[in-house]
Each structure stands twice: as structure tokens, then as C-alpha cells.
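Standup notes
- HV: blocked on the assembly model, inputs below
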Amino acid sequence: MAAVTETTTQPRAQTKRGRSKVLARREAMWGYLFISPFIVGILGFTLIPTVATLVMSFTNFTLSGAPTSFIGVTNYQRLFRDSQIWSSLLVTVRFAAIALPVGLILPLGLALMLNSKSLRAKSLFRTLFYFPYIVPFVAAIFVWGALLNAETGWINQFLRWVGVANPPNWLNSVVWIYPALVILGLWGIGNAMLIFLASLQGVPTELYNAAEIDGAGWWQSMWNVTLPMISPVIFYNLTLSIVGLFQYFTVPLVLNQGTGAPGGTTMFYNLYLYKVFFTYQNMAYGATMAWLLFVIILVVTLVLFRTSRYWVYYAAENR
Amino acid sequence: MAATMIQGERRRQRPINWRAVLRSTLITLMMLLFAFLFLLPFFNMVFTSLKTTAQMMQPGAPVWPAMPGVFEYNGKELELYRVPMPDGSVQDLAIVQKGRQQSTFIDPDNPEAGEIEWSGSWRALERPWQWHPAWSNYREAWEKIDFPILFRNTLGIALIGLLGTVVSSTLVAYGFARFRFPGRSLLFTILISTIFLPAAVTIVPTYAFFVTIGWVGSWLPLTVPHFFSNAYNVFLMRQYMMTIPREIDEAAMMDGANPFRILTAVILPQCVSVMLAVALFHLVFAWNDYFGPLIYLSTRFDLQPIAVALPRFNNLYGSNPPLIQAASLMAMALPVLIFFFAQRVFIQGVVVTGVEK
């Protein structure tokens, strides 16, 4: 779009160069004026705070009013000696190992079913599966928490009814807590499902027809047509999920007041970070932790982008 | 065989493909089951919110809201019992006179038949359950959680931020959609990349800054940042504005209209639906936001929105699940209602921001 208008203005630019320069400058001025809220916002709420986080990590800044001074890499030394850091990172990775595949495969599976030609009342189902995403997650925690109750919850009542003698004590068991947290988050899959569904609907039908002519079955056309065609959206959802999972902590915070119970299994990295900067008001160490998290997420995202050229298919490149 | 016969009979009509019908019935039924399981917690919540605490404690009580059955007789409430009759059947009878070895009942279906003498201990009898929703839970939760104040706070924070994000995102999207300036694509890339930026990396200095300038304990940290636009909203609005033909604004420019005039007179009237989408997304975001109000309003209970008040309420009344579930339902009522009235707007918005990037 922009390229087209640029070429059409070219001849005019050659004949009346001086005047069009003034016009271009005026246009740029208006453009900067309109995007100025974004410029101010990105400076004030993103760039400066990010740099400030880095600077703070080399100080002993707290909110108690004690004088602040630079203390070099002391915070980073503490970071590497702090066993809580490593255990909370491990907790985060462990949870992500379950939550990430579920959070991708379940919405994708639902989207595939919603996209099936055989399904009736598609828009009704789309609405039903999306709508819990709107429910405040604190309310969703109390709803699912009641369902997961070891004694009175419907899930365990059902399990006992089908003959499971000792159904898990979901929220108080160090073994079952991560599946339980995944269940607590089930109502959040609507967004990813919609995005997958829209991308599935965008796959050209000619490709499926061609695959059918070539004798491809359901699995083959899924593997060779559907998945490659929607791989950019899989990549987008995967990246957002990873960034989100590294910052996961509000659910355990609400669920058991951030104590990390049972047995420290819900002491997520970001929960520890929250306690350090908010509960203990240790800004400098909190900033150091935040910076470590940032580096980890950055590295993971960059690796992901690096690998994406091998498995993400961008139609635009082949044009 | 059957299919070919029917085809023969109705040669004029399109043949019915019974295999396709069967497949679509099976798939639809399976989805119905999934949807039922997915929304089961919702039924559990509604049922629990209408139960009495007595029913919650009682083992063997039904899953639906109920009370032990009673029968109104001669202006008195009589308790119902499951009484085994001499002929071997079991009848639900209302007790008139309680006795140790012998009690007097009447049949609620046929009170005119008179009193029935029954030998045995009424204490050993079970009581039948009657459908009886405890609507008073809602009034109690409403009062205990101080819902009017919470509603005011939540709506206030949401509406101020909504104003900010709609105005600022419109301006920024217009700037990116309609003007050429050096660094435009770089700046737009930076804007989009903020979607992937972890919030944790800015939160510590931002919080410290708001403490220093004395904004903590007010709505300002929750509303003012929205006046500086947001990547999702700008992207959504820019995509929309790019589909509006340029001819009209070029014509307006020839007539001497300045860019502000073009925005308000030409662009905005065509952007009503996308602005509505941005507004609704923000409303739901602000309604559900937990972390922001948690750290900025932790000491000001009187200014807190419902998302933060609900866990506090849960800690106080954890032993009373019906109250918690009633309060949770009240907390989600508005966003869910808005969604059902405007679901097309929501779904369109998610699709544009999610797929086109």
C-alpha cells in the first residue's frame, strides 16, 4: 500500500522538488504528532524502566529511605548463591513442561473440530468455548477450586463413582498440583482456540483438493497441508505462551496466598520476584531477578526465532 | 442398500448421504459433550451459590440446591419423611405428631384422607429433598462484600482507562496508517514487539516510581498509563484504518481540511465498530486485572476493584462456599453479559490481532 503511493508521487517529486519536500516534512510532522502518545509511552513505561531495572540491579536501592549506592555485582553474586532462585526456576520449567503442550494442543484440537465440515451449530460451539475466557481468573479459580476439592469436588466424586479408590488430593498434593493448575487454567484456552480456528479457515481449499487428488488421507493432509499452513500461528501462540508461562504466578498467589504450598511446589519464579520487590520491598534484588528473567526469556525467544526458519512456513517469502 | 433405495425413490431431490449425516451427528454430539464438561464448573458454581451451608455440610445431599422437604398444613410447616408402609412401598408423608414408638402422619397428596398412624421411630427415617434455592445468599454476599462500592471502583477504573486507550490508540493508529515519516516501520516493529516483552522487566522501577511520586494508593497508576496507547489496540485499529479508501481523505485534504479534521470527519465515523471492540476489550481487561490493583491499592480497601476484593472475601468466608460462589458470579456477571451482547465484535478483534500479525 505504502509502496504504491510512493511510486505514484515520484514524478510529482521530480517536477516540483522543493514544494514536495515541504509537504513530506509536513506529513512527517503530523505523523510524529499523532504517534506521540506511543513515543512518550514507550519511553516512559518501557525503555526507561527497562534501563532503570538494569541500573538498579547494581545498587542497594530499597524503598525504606536508606541511602542508595552502587554495589557492583553483589546482587548478581547473591542471585547465583540463592537456592530459592534455582528451585523457583525449576518449578516454573516443570509446570511449563505440562502446561505448554496442553495449552497448545487442546486449543488446536478444539479448533480442528470446530473447523470440521461435519459439525453443526459451529458458531454456538465457538461462543461456548470462548466465553469462559471472559470470566475473571480469580472467579475461575474459586469455581475450579471447588470442583477440585478432594472430598466434595465433582471431579473426585466422579472418580470414586467409576471406581478409583483413592482419587488425588489435587491442590494439596506435590504430585498432582501441576495437573491441577493446568485444569484451573482450562477456561483460558478460548483465545488461542479462536486464533487457531481463524488460521485454519484461512488455508486455501485448493490445497486440500490437490492433496485429495494425490491420494492423501486425513493424517497426510493434516501433516502436509494443515500444519505447515498454520505454522506461523502455532509459532505466535508458542512464543506468547512461553513468555506468559515464565511470568506465571497470579494463580498460585490467589490460590494459597503465595506461600508456595504444597511443599514449595507453587513457588514460581515470578512469585518469588513479587515477594522480593513487593512484600520485602527489596527493589534492587527484585530488579536483578527481573533482569535475569528478561535474559532467559530473550534467549529462549531468540532460539525459537532461530529455529522458526526450519519449521515455520511463510507464504510471503515464496511469492 | 438403503441409501440406493432412497436415492431411487427421490430422484428429483438431492440424495441424502447417510454416512455424512451419521458423521455429523456423532461429531456434533461429541462436541456437545465436550462443551458440557467444559462448562460444568459453571453449573457447579450456580448450584453451590444457591445452597444453604446446612446442605453443604450434609453428606448425601443432592447436587442441586435443596432443603429437607416440608408441607404446609393448617397454617403449620410439617416435616416430610420417607416412610416405609406396611404394604412394602415407601411414601413421603408429613409428620403431625412425633412419638417415640408411634407417630402420626398425613399424606401431602391427599390430606383429606386423614391422619395415618405409623409404628416405629421417626428419628430413623430419612427426609426427602425439595428444590429450594437459597436466593438470600446473593443478598448476603452483596452486603458483606459491599458490592455497590466494588462495582463503582471497578467500573470507574475501567472507564477512565477505556477513555484513555480508545483516544490514544486511535491517534497512534491514525499516525501509523496514514502518514509517511522516517523510522515508521522501525517504530511499528518496536510497538508490536512490546507484546512479547515480559511485564516483569519494567514493574520494579515503575512501582518504585509510582511510590516516589505518591500515586500508590490511588487509581492513577491503573488509569494514566492507558493514555499512552497499547500495541494490540493500535494494531487492531491500524489494520482497520488501512482498509478505508484514501480517496475520501485526499479529497478532504484538497478542500483544505487539516489531518485532525480528516480524522474526526472522515476516519472516525467509519471506525465505530473497531473502537467499540477496543473499548470492550479494555473493559474486560480492566474488570479482570488482578496484579495492578493488587500492588497499587493493597492498603486502600475502599478503592479496590472486585478482582482484588474477591480473594480477600474468600479468606474471610472460606468456610461458606455458597457466599464465595455467589460473589464470584456477581464478579463475572458484567463481562459475561457484555460478551454475549457483543460476541461478534470480540471474536473479530481476537482474530485480527492474532492471525494477521
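- HV (later): unblocked. Chain A has a mean pLDDT of 88. Chain A touches chain B through 92 residues (CB under 8 Å).
- Next: hand off to the docking folks.
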